[in-house]
Amino acid sequence: MYPRNIGRALGIGVRVAGRIAGQRIAAAGQPATSAPVSANSSVNRSANPVDINSVEAQSAVAASTIRAQSQVQTVGRTAAQTTRGISAGISGFLRPFRRVGGIVWLEVTGSFFLLFAAIFALRLWQNWSGTGAISRDFAIGAAVVFLYLGATSFWRARRK
Predict the structure, then answer these.
(1) Which domain holds residue 72?
(2) For the chain, what is the mean pLDDT?
(3) pLDDT computed for residue 149 by the predictor
(4) Is residue 44 part of a domain?
């Protein structure tokens, strides 16, 4: 991917994520509309003492409960949509770096494997000179295994 394309992808991803987040925040800040109250019901409530067991009181409580539940569901949906939008924006922002990060990871692990192969080769040389305390067969096996892992790690990074 060319640097110009990476910049375009990053710019588009940031703009889309910002637009989605702004829309979600604006939608969450708007109050929910409630059902209009008739003039007769307000007059009756103010003139008479409130009876908790009355049908009107129970229906008012039920209506307010339903409104509260619908508002909670709306806020939950908005939060979920905002989360999805933010995660899509972040993944779009990081997508160009995924390939480069994979290559760097393979090269770093290959370097560590080659470092261990060099250490075991040094121990093998010390063993043949008579100063080493490690088994010759173990040193040969470990050096070969780490050399293979390091070389294949760099080979896989080259293929990416």
Answers:
(1) 3-32+53-159
(2) 79
(3) 96
(4) no
Q: List pLDDT tens digits, range 111-133.
A: 999 999 999 999 888 888 777 67
- Exposure string for 76-107, b = 16+ CB within 10 A, e = fewer: eeeeeebeebeeebeebbeebeeeeeeeeebe
| 20, 112, 121 from 136: Cα distances, Å | 64, 22, 10
Tell me, yes or no, whether 97 lies in a domain.
yes
Identify whether 147 is part of a domain.
yes
**Per-residue pLDDT at 20:** 83
The number of CA neighbours under 13 Å toward the Cβ of 36 is: 3
Compute the distance between CA of residue 153 and CA of residue 156 in angstroms, rounded to an integer.
5
Question: Are the C-beta atoms of 150 and 144 separated by less than 8 Å?
Answer: no
Query: Is residue 41 one of the residues assigned to a domain?
Result: no
Please give the structure tokens belonging to residue 153: 């790690």
The amino acid sitting at 9 is A
In this structure, what DSSP letter does residue 33 have? Answer: P
Q: Per the structure block, which two tokens stand in for 147?
A: 């050399």
pLDDT at position 43 is: 45
If one counts the domains in the chain, the total is 1
